[in-house]
């Protein structure tokens, strides 16, 4: 396991050392999901921050990766008792994808993220107990990124993945991150 961690870190450092574009980003995301029958959910706002890098493969195509800290909250309410619980799960994400560049300052991307669960909490275990939380999930992501100033831009994205824990499924989110580039 230690070998895999060292290999992953070395690979990411290699990608960033060759990166054509590198930046830090952070922002907010609207998270939603589905639960078992007898319960309902309300979407919640979480946050994400980290670093991203882009390495050109060709003039119009680039490899995109990064390291992100991501919060994925959700409110679950019992239809019977009307009690609610705020569920919060945080992840360490490594997005891996391809970006189609329309211009040097704008592109669309698609890929996956390798998301490792760091923490999980439920504010009211009478409503939902977080059981069998998957330690690794792989959400599909797509979005657009563009610069509105030479070293500032936005990343707008959508994310979708399946089961997260026993009774929690079909997680999805939309988000907007402010991007500071160091080209």
Task: Note down, in words, how this protein is organized.
- The chain has one helix at about 1-20; strands at about 20-35, 40-55, 60-80, 85-105, 105-120, 135, 140-150, 150-160, 170-180.
- Strand 3 and strand 4 form a beta hairpin.
- The chain is mostly beta strands and about 180 residues long.
- Mean pLDDT is about 85; it is low at about 15-20.
- The chain is built from 1 helix and 9 strands, in the order αβββββββββ.
- The protein is elongated.
- An 8-stranded antiparallel β-barrel has the order 1-2-3-4-5-7-8-9.
- It has one domain (about 1-180): Porin (Beta Barrel).
Instruction: Quickly name the level 1 CATH class.
Output: Mainly Beta
In helices, the fraction of residues equals under 10%
Q: Which assembly state applies to the chains in this document?
A: single chain
Treating each run of at least 4 consecutive H or I residues as one helix, how many helices?
1
For this structure, the CATH topology is Porin
Give, in spatial order, the strands making up the sheet with the most strands: 1-2-3-4-5-7-8-9
The coarse overall form would be elongated
Number of domains: 1
* Cα-atom radius of gyration: 18 Å
Low-confidence region ranges: 13-19
Distance between the termini: 34 Å
- Structural class per helix/strand content? mainly beta
Mind describing the biggest β-sheet?
8 strands, antiparallel, barrel
**Number of β-strand runs:** 9
Percent of residues in beta strands: over 45%
Mean pLDDT: 87
Summarize the helix and strand pattern as letters: HEEEEEEEEE
**CATH architecture assignment name:** Beta Barrel
